[in-house]
Amino acid sequence: MTDDAPTDAEAACFEAGIKFGSLYHQFAGTPVSPDSADSVATAMEEAIENQPHCREVSVDVREDELEAALAESAADYTELTGRFLEVEIVVADGGLEVVARMAMEDGYPLMQLASIEGRSSE
Amino acid sequence: MTDDAPTDAEAACFEAGIKFGSLYHQFAGTPVSPDSADSVATAMEEAIENQPHCREVSVDVREDELEAALAESAADYTELTGRFLEVEIVVADGGLEVVARMAMEDGYPLMQLASIEGRSSE
Amino acid sequence: MTDDAPTDAEAACFEAGIKFGSLYHQFAGTPVSPDSADSVATAMEEAIENQPHCREVSVDVREDELEAALAESAADYTELTGRFLEVEIVVADGGLEVVARMAMEDGYPLMQLASIEGRSSE
Amino acid sequence: MTDDAPTDAEAACFEAGIKFGSLYHQFAGTPVSPDSADSVATAMEEAIENQPHCREVSVDVREDELEAALAESAADYTELTGRFLEVEIVVADGGLEVVARMAMEDGYPLMQLASIEGRSSE
To answer: Dihydroneopterin aldolase MtpD C-terminal domain location, by residue (chains A, B, C, D) (predicted)?
Structure first.
């Protein structure tokens, strides 16, 4: 028996990671202002929800952080980056449901698994 | 006299080019389906309108081409690329107004200046 | 007891997914030709190897596919997309090693886990 | 007579702008460290040189700025952004040659035309 084959739960966690990396690196760098924050958040949600097994994506552009960044700047917009984002992604495959989140930790946009429900061994 | 300094009209055309390159390379590769086409189009418009001297951006995701591409595919979404886009960008600076457009020509998403109004020499 | 907390192996698979999504959506859309294929492949490898727990990234730009695409086109370059890529990523965390790969399947760039070694329960 | 048609020099400046916007928004967000700076710089140069009428692209990743940013951070890499870049692009079309540059000004990565040589009216 080969015990190095992925379990269904591991495969679902891999899928959740793909969605996070896709979301971040597709949209990081987008010009963003308080006025355009909602439209990029909606586009990020709907774009990534197209990907396989992606049940739901919730993107919150943190307008407080955005306004703090713009207050220090001569410009009235900036580039979208992790500092301005809170994201939750739910992946569902078969009976499995994986929830993962991104938020800032020590100045780095940390992506983490929150929970995995429905493992077949449970 | 140095005659190689840019004119105001040339600078405005450079600005229009920046907006087109930005729009295309920021959003190319985004997962897109008929259901999510409107949200990515709106995000593209509002994101690029943040850039300096950008008066208006109009993005049309060609849903006919999108549905034709999906009909040939096992997937129900694809990646955003020039084949699916028609774009017009208007840059205004001082009394100058530059209009530029992108549409497919020979299978290549050709970006072109359409008009420049208000040159100081006129 | 909450049995929905992620295992170390599930967390490592999530990390491997992040690397794949990042690599793909950062670099998809890059102008590429047979002459520039090596430099983008090297940049992709070295960029993603910066990410946490990423032991090794191997990117092969499929020059046969690239030349086939260019033969059908009036242009001498095209946009980087999954059709032109074969990728292997190795993530290592503690005693765990996750190997994942991307290759075309039915016209879609399928990213899959290949193996997970070193689970603590083994 | 329509005096709003673009001149050859204006069209060349538009092309130069496209290259700058493409370069910036394709590669902004790439994970970068002092060790991987050279490979991303080379990939940026060779990718954009594929585009029409692009004679030469020179990208310098400012390792001093990169090390200063990393000294303030818990991570050993960061995201590529304008703060870390100096870029020169030369576009040539017919007898025209346009030189444009990007460098930081007031915390914003300013892209500017430097010179245009060979206008037909000269």
So the answer is: 7-113
Residue-range definition of the domain harbouring residue B88: 8-118
Give the model's pLDDT for residue B22. Answer: 98
What is the residue-averaged pLDDT of chain B? 94
Sign of the torsion formed by the C-alpha atoms of C22, C26, C29 and C33: negative
The residues near B94 (Cβ < 8 Å, ≥ 6 apart) are B8, B118
- Is the CB of A79 inside 8 Å of chain D's CB atoms? yes
Contacts of B1 (CB under 8 A, 6+ apart): none
d(CA D81, CA C70): 31
**What CATH number corresponds to the domain at position C96?**
3.30.1300.20
Mutation for testing the D interface, residue in B3, B23, B25 having most D CBs under 10 Å: B25
> Cα dist. C100→A7, D26, D67 in Å?
14, 25, 32
| Side chain identity, residue C52 | P
What is the rounded distance in angstroms from the CA atom of residue D27 to the CA atom of residue D48? 11
| Count of all residues that appear for chain B in the document | 122
B22: in domain: yes
Q: Is the ipTM of this complex over 0.85?
A: yes
Rounded percentage of chain D residues whose pLDDT exceeds 70: 97
Interface check for D16 against chain B (CB to CB < 8 A): the answer is: yes
Number of independent structural domains in chain C: 1
From CA B73, how far away is CA C53, in angstroms rounded?
35
Q: Which amino acid belongs to residue D67? A: E
pLDDT bin (cut points 50, 70, 90) of residue B1 is: very low
- Cα(B43)–Cα(B36) distance, integer angstroms: 11
Query: Which pLDDT belongs to residue A105?
Result: 87
pLDDT range class, residue B90, cuts 50, 70, 90: very high
Interval D93-101 mean pLDDT: 96
Q: Could you tell me if residue D2 is inside a domain? A: no
- C90 touches D at CB < 8 Å: no
Rounded CA-CA distance B43/A32 in Å is 10
CB C20 within 8 A of CB A15: no
Give percent above pLDDT 90 in chain A.
86
Question: B105 CA to chain C: closest CA distance, Å?
Answer: 10
**DSSP structure class, residue A91:** E
Residue C1 domain-assigned (yes or no): no
Name beta bridge partners: C105: C108
Q: Model confidence over C26-61: pLDDT tens digits?
A: 999 999 999 999 999 999 999 999 999 999 999 999
